[in-house]
Design a protein that fits this description.
Structural class: alpha/beta
Radius of gyration: 20 Å
CATH class of the largest domain: Alpha Beta
Order of helices and strands: EHEEEHEEHEEEEHHEEEEHHEEEH
Shape: globular
CATH topology of the largest domain: FAD/NAD(P)-binding domain
Number of domains: 2
Number of helices: 8
CATH superfamily of the largest domain: FAD/NAD(P)-binding domain
Largest sheet: 6 strands, mixed
Helix content: 25-40%
Number of strands: 17
C-alpha cells in the first residue's frame, strides 16, 4: 500500500519505519520545520556560543524488551546515552533529545513544514489537505489527541471520541543559560513549588559545558497561567529556581519560554487504533501512557497489526 502518516514524532516514525521495511510506501507529513516534536531540542546563538536546550521530553526509559533492544542499537550508533542522574533506566538523545528522531527520519520520506488540516476519502483513496501529495491507500494519524480528533471525526467518529476523551496536560517551560555555574548542588529539581521538573541541561551526556537549565512548571500552574505572556512566565520560573540556589542567580544570557499546550497525555489502554474497512488508524502515547517508550510501542503495534492483515 501507499500510506500517509500525519505526524513525524516517534510514534509516526516507528510505524513508518516498520511498514517501509516490509515493503509499503510511506510518506510522513509534519507541521514542524525538522525532527523533534515533544522530543525537541532548541539551539540558541548567544555571546557564549550556541547553547542547546532539551525543552520537551527530558529523558526516556526502556522497559519493554523490544524497545530496550532498539535502544541498545541506538547506543551502539552513539545517538543515545544513559543518564544515571535521572534514574538507573534513564536515557537521553545525544547530543540532543531530537537526535533519535533525526536518525529515524533520515531514511524516510518526511515532508516537513506540511500542516495537514483535513483528510478526504474519494473512491476508496485518501487525500491529505491542503498538501498536494496524490492519493494514498491508507492514512494514519500520529499526532497528540487534541489534533487527532478533528482529523478523525468525519471518517471514524468512535476513534475521534477516544481522542477527545484523552486531553493532554499543558506545560510551560523556561530555557535559561548563565555565564557561571549556579549555586545549586543537584542537577535535577523535582516537584518544588511551581516547578514540576528542572534540570541542568549541560549535565546530560554529550552536552556543551555552558550552564544551561530547563525549568518546567507543574501541570496545575501551567493550566492556570496558560495564556500568560512568555516574559512573565519565565520570570516566575526563574524566581522558583532561585529559591533552590544557595546564592542569588546571576543575570541569564538566555531566557526563553515555550508553551506546550499538549505536553502530557493521559494513561489509556487502547494501544493503537485501526479501521481495516476504511484503512484509517491512529497511534501515539495518548493510546497507552505519557512516555516516549509508549509512543514507540503504539507505532510498532499498529504497523504489526497492518502487516498481519496485509503482509
Amino acid at each position: 500500500m501507499r500510506i500517509a502518516i500525519i505526524g513525524a514524532g516517534i510514534a509516526g516514525l516507528t510505524c513508518a519505519e516498520t511498514l517501509q521495511t516490509a515493503g509499503h510506501g510511506v510518506t510522513l507529513f509534519d507541521k514542524g520545520r525538522s525532527a523533534g516534536g515533544r522530543m525537541a531540542t532548541r539551539r540558541v546563538d548567544t555571546p557564549c556560543g550556541t547553547i542547546a536546550f532539551d525543552h520537551g521530553a527530558q529523558y526516556f526509559t526502556a522497559r519493554d524488551p523490544a524497545f530496550a533492544a532498539t535502544v541498545m542499537g541506538w547506543e551502539a550508533e552513539q545517538i543515545v546515552a544513559s543518564w544515571a542522574t535521572a534514574g538507573d533506566d534513564a536515557w537521553v538523545g545525544k547530543p540532543g533529545m531530537n537526535a533519535v528522531l533525526r536518525a529515524m527520519a533520515a531514511p524516510l520520506d518526511v515532508r516537513w513544514n506540511s500542516l495537514v488540516d483535513a483528510l478526504r476519502r474519494i473512491d476508496g483513496l485518501w487525500f491529505v489537505d491542503p498538501v498536494a501529495a496524490g492519493a494514498f491507500d491508507a492514512v494514519i494519524v500520529a499526532t497528540p489527541s487534541e489534533q487527532a480528533a478533528p482529523l478523525l471525526v468525519a471518517h471514524d467518529p468512535a476513534m475521534a471520541a477516544m481522542a477527545q476523551a484523552c486531553p493532554s496536560a499543558p506545560c510551560w517551560t523556561a530555557m535559561v543559560a548563565f555565564e557561571e555555574r549556579l549555586a545549586i548542588a543537584q542537577d535535577i529539581v523535582r516537584d518544588s513549588g511551581i516547578i514540576g521538573w528542572a534540570a541542568r541541561n549541560s549535565a546530560k551526556p554529550g552536552r556543551d559545558a555552558t550552564e544551561a537549565w530547563v525549568i518546567q512548571a507543574t501541570a496545575t500552574w501551567s493550566r492556570s497561567h496558560l495564556e500568560d505572556d512568555q516574559a512573565s512566565v519565565v520570570a516566575a520560573l526563574l524566581r522558583a529556581l532561585a529559591a533552590e540556589a544557595a546564592r542569588p542567580l546571576p543575570e541569564p544570557v538566555v531566557r526563553i519560554g515555550h508553551r506546550w499546550r499538549f505536553a502530557r497525555a493521559r494513561t489509556t489502554n487502547h494501544g493503537s487504533l485501526w479501521n481495516e474497512a476504511s484503512r484509517i488508524g491512529a497511534v501515539g502515547d495518548w493510546l497507552i501512557a505519557p512516555r516516549i517508550e509508549s509512543a514507540w510501542l503504539s507505532g510498532r503495534m499498529l504497523a504489526d497489526r497492518i502487516l498481519a492483515a496485509r503482509p
